[in-house]
Amino acid sequence: MTEAPPLTRDDLLALDRDDPLAHVRDEFDINPDLVYLDGNSLGVPPRGVAERVAAVIEQEWRLGLIRSWTTAGWIDTPARVGAKLARMLGAAGDEVVVADSTSVNLFKLLIAALRARPGRHVVLTEDANFPTDLYIADGVAALLRREGVSVRRVPRERLLDALDDDVAVLFLTHVHYTTGRVHDMRALTEAAHRAGALALWDLSHSAGAVPVDLHAADADLAVGCGYKYLNGGPGAPACLFAARRLHDSLQSVLPGWMGHAAPFEFSGTYRPAPGVLRHLCGTPPIISLAALEVAVDLWLRIDMAAVRSKSMRLGDLFIRLVDERCAAHGFEVVSPRDATVRGSQVSLRHDDGYAVMQALIDRGVIGDFRAPDVMRFGFAAPYTRYVDMWDAVEVLRAVMDQEVWREPRYAARAAVT
After folding, report:
1. Is the dihedral of CA 194, 243, 113, 181 positive or negative?
2. How far is the first Cα of the chain from the last one, in angstroms, to the nearest whole number?
3. Using an 8 Å Cβ cutoff, are 19 and 302 in contact?
4. pLDDT band for position 3 (50/70/90)?
5. Left (φ > 0), alpha (ψ -120 to 50) or beta: where does 48 sit?
6. Phi and psi at residue 265, in whole multiples of 5°?
7. pLDDT surpassing 60 at residue 74
């Protein structure tokens, strides 16, 4: 079989000309001097965010003041933005709310799930789950130690064997943060249900990156952050999903006033709000929610099937270019080469990955690094171009060929990697 000729930059420019998502790039405020491949960590701002946030500050806050909770609809924002996100996640509008951070929402839902499965005391997760997910699970177990709650961490390939009568909740991240490998949400949820457990999914690296259909997977619970592929801005609030069939059986461990059935009755006794709204807690962050809503409104105009098709192709091209142009430099592709089980990122392992990534960033190619030795490159299909794959790998090749990563300044570890 004849091998395909090596790719050229013109090949990728031709793909950009035919890209059905090419016009969407103009909807984002992108620095043209950068090849930005870190949308899996922080998405770029959509156009219109600055103007919307300014309007919230100048008009709704400065002029409307406290009246804007009613006149500008602030009080309804968590449910309104949640209902919009639900359309992206294959959920009903009354099953998703935007509130708090991913970690706080995980804490709330883990305890709610444990209490909804009395007599079961185990949180089952994979040992390579995202660290904060593991920390939260361990924190829940420590808090509920007297009730016998524990966390069972097993390798990914042993999850099905570890589902037994003690498991209350199977707790997994849909797309792995380091490798980008995708779990089969539907199959694992079905397995959890057969064992009598609930399934809780972290969508932080899936929402906006791969198609998510919570109803089709029969998922019970889910959370997802707003600042990665969803482009809601640094520290954007997270979303929380609870299947309607579970609403009455789930109680929030943080029964704040915004989760009360009638917050402004100021009753001394807590009565949970109906449905998913009971998982609200404190006052919602209106400015951050305004930025996120602009991004979600844009996402609702984007064809997710086209996003997935393009992101798979971007990843395939990046891997091929690394194979063709950087074969002599010791990179190991740790993400699946099969695009159907890979999220919207490619990760490379290298002993000196941190220094190499810093040299890349210094030359305008921005990815990130995850200890101990993984370089991550995220492909946000709405604004990442095919030619960016060529330009990124060309800079990577030059950094390695010229050994510029050996400069001592690139080895100095920053607080954020």
Report:
1. positive
2. 43
3. no
4. confident
5. left
6. -80, -25
7. yes
User: How far apart are alpha carbons 337 and 302 in whole angstroms?
Assistant: 26
pLDDT of residue 375: 98
- Per-residue pLDDT at 143: 96
Element (H, E) at 123: strand 122-126
Q: Measured between alpha carbons, how far is 5 from 139 in angstroms, rounded to an integer?
A: 53
Count, residues in the chain: 417
Query: Which residue(s) pair with 322 in the sheet?
Result: none
Two tokens at 219?
Answer: 């998922």
**CA atoms of 10 and 8, how far apart (whole Å):** 5
The secondary element (H helix, E strand) that includes residue 345 is strand 345-349
C-alpha closest to that of 40 among 292, 235, 209, 173 = 209
Mean pLDDT (whole number) for 355-375: 97
Residue type, 152: R
Distance from C-alpha of 289 to C-alpha of 53, rounded to nearest angstrom? 9
Tell me the C-alpha distance between 134 and 144, whole Å: 15
Distance CA 77, CA 415 (A): 34
Mean pLDDT of the chain: 96
b vs e for 267-277, b when ≥16 Cβ sit within 10 Å of the residue's Cβ? eeeeebbebbb
DSSP calls for 278-328? GG--S---HHHHHHHHHHHHHHTTS-HHHHHHHHHHHHHHHHHHHHHHSGG
Q: How far is CA 123 from CA 26, 118, 144, 166, in A?
A: 44, 13, 12, 9
By annotation, the residues acting in catalysis are: 130, 202, 227-228, 376
Q: Which residue type occupies 184?
A: D
- One-letter amino acid of 82: G
- Three state DSSP letters for 72-104: CCHHHHHHHHHHHHHHHHCCCHHHEEECCCHHH
pLDDT at residue 170 tops 70: yes
Helix axes 387-401, 353-362, angle to 10 degrees: 120
- Work out the average pLDDT over 197-220: 97
Cα 142 to Cα 177: distance, rounded to the nearest angstrom: 25
